[in-house]
Amino acid sequence: MKKYWTLALAALCGFSLSMLVPESPATPWESIGGCGAGGSGGGASDGIKWIGQGVNGGLVETEIFAKASVGENYSGFTFTPRFSFKPTWSTSVGVTLPFMTHSGEVQYRTNQAPVDRTTGGFGDISFDVSQIVGGGGAANISLALTIPTGQYDIKRGTDASQEFLPSSFQKGSGVYSLALGWNYTRDTENGMWLYSLTYTHPFNVSFSGENEFNDSYFKDYDTDGDDRFEYHFKWYGENDLGGYTPPSVSASLAYAYRGQENFVHSFGITFSAPLGVAWIPSEKVGTYDPRPDPDHKAWSFAFVYGLEFSRADYPIFLAFSLPLHDKSNGADADDEYDESAMRKWDLPDFGAFLEEWTLAVGIKASFL
């Protein structure tokens, strides 16, 4: 970032904040800071944010996160460099370029045998802008746009019988997404409290005025005049395969302890909930048959511990996250399109609590 930003931050207790960008499978980003502190991070589901002293001295700031996620029958790795700069002392502009791999079991139906699948590559790019509001520099509003640059129609199988992989194995979501965030920092004697609220709204745009797959997967369908296949804009998050991502809200609370020289310890909790039930496309290539996602979670928490090694030039951040979510409710056995059971908020799924975790390592630098 620009050198004069450092001086401005010092005048405003060193506050910096950037935007929470929606995790496609991909990646939301959020930056938070307080007096003499700054930071950012990513991961809507894991709740991990970089909280620490930050880095100063350049026109462009780079933050790189590497995350490994593990569950009972899956594993994943993401590598997400983010580049940002400040056109003014109170405004930050950034871009996030996610790379990822996914491995795990895939079982479309309970009467089918599970198979192991692996995917990887470039995901959905996110752009964000944030603006400090108020005279004290403690509050920030931000807006982020995620665009569907990652492939979302990855398929496997023989030439005669191919199947789309589940959304968690795709590199992108197939939809655009806007995230509006509010963040606030309150300093204490040896630390700071960090508060965040975010609303995310997926939508879809067709510059050609029709479904991307009309002439390939859905060439046997009569799509004329059907709003799902012939459109320029959808205000809701349905992609061209029929998968649906509902709007969502999230809130986080974190405390950073800065009483130990050259280290910042942080403890946080993030709550998120979709405002609707997610739908998945048909796994059969050439078939348009979306249905409610059997793995839909009505709510989720993430408990996070982070530690920044506060070096002046290249700070390093380590974080560990444990998710806790409600138990999945499958659709009615007689009607797999009935989503009413999935709307219910159930008790926590403690059986999966210690079976899922995310470990993150990050580094920051500034240059130019």
Automatic annotation (TrEMBL):
Keyword field contains Signal: yes
Domain of life where this protein originates: Bacteria
Keywords, comma-separated and alphabetical: Signal
Signal peptide start-end: 1-21
Protein name: Transporter
Species this chain originates from: Hallerella succinigenes
Lineage: Bacteria, Pseudomonadati, Fibrobacterota, Fibrobacteria, Fibrobacterales
